[in-house]
Specification:
The protein is an alpha/beta fold. It has eight helices and seven strands; from the N terminus they run E-H-E-H-E-H-E-H-E-H-E-H-H-H-E. Strand 5, helix 5 and strand 6 form a beta-alpha-beta unit.
Length: 263
């Protein structure tokens, strides 16, 4: 199967590192024009340079922070055309429920949920008018297995599942598909940072600490290791491809079997 996204413009949020960067690089490798998004101009420029170096013929541009409505408006004004929207941007911080203030609940909701709502609301009407478009929301296995140490994160990822399913129904009978991708534990830069102290204290490498984390905190994992960012990106690249035209309203799990169900 050869995925060709030539002539398509893809906006990938939160794409300067981790899963988002891997998705942006994968889409560029398939010929799409890719709009990279991050919190700082320096991070965006670094990601654009790295993707261009890996795929010299790719057209890659940068965009603004999406943590606020103003930031979303700036992206849409700068990039009014979008065939593929990947709502990946998100924040996560382990924190006990009783220590999470209202401001953190609001921040998580704004970044993890409302950024995707705002951009989908802005870009989807034109997709429907063209009768072709792809929207993917990055959810998480934490949407189904709510982590006790990150309840505020899990709730946002459950919300994303509801939105993606509802938007798929909104696009019923058209060439526009909307799906959610649910990664499990993934060895991204953010997870590496979270595990750094534990790795140093135990004398393990980050990779060894990550495997130990999966076995201890996600014992139902069939993979028994974290996924790589590229492994998650592969699912997203397929979901936005022309070949995935009959896949919509789906929750596509790349969780290594963490969610213990046959459905």
């Amino acid at each position: 199967m050869k995925i060709d996204l030539s002539g398509k413009t893809a906006v990938v949020t939160g794409s300067t590192t981790g899963i988002g960067f891997a998705i942006a690089r994968g889409l560029a490798g398939c010929g799409a024009t890719v709009v990279v998004n991050g919190r700082t101009p320096v991070a965006v420029a670094r990601a654009v340079a790295a993707i261009t170096a890996a795929t010299p013929l790719a057209e890659v541009r940068g965009a603004a922070d999406l943590g606020t409505a103003t930031g979303c408006d700036a992206v849409v004004n700068a990039e009014p055309e979008c065939d593929i929207l990947v709502n990946n941007v998100g924040v996560f911080i382990p924190r006990d429920f009783f220590d999470i203030p209202d401001s953190e609940w609001t921040r998580f909701f704004e970044v993890n949920v409302m950024s995707g709502v705002r951009l989908s609301r802005a870009y989807m009407p034109a997709m429907l008018a063209r009768n072709w478009g792809r929207i993917v929301f990055l959810s998480s296995e934490s949407a189904l297995n709510i982590p006790v140490e990150m309840i505020h994160y899990g709730f946002t990822k459950t919300a994303v599942l509801s939105i993606s399913r509802g938007l798929a129904k909104r696009a019923a009978g058209t060439g526009v598909t909307v799906n959610a991708v649910l990664p499990g534990p993934t060895l991204s830069e953010g997870v590496e940072e979270m595990l750094r102290d534990a790795a140093q204290k135990s004398g393990q490498s980050i990779e060894q600490a990550a495997v130990a984390f999966v076995k201890a905190k996600r014992p139902s994992s069939i993979l028994q290791r974290p996924a790589t960012a590229e492994e998650v990106a592969n699912m997203v690249v397929y979901a936005v491809s022309p070949q995935a035209s009959a896949t919509t309203g789906a929750s596509l799990r790349v969780d290594g079997g963490v969610v213990d169900t046959i459905a």
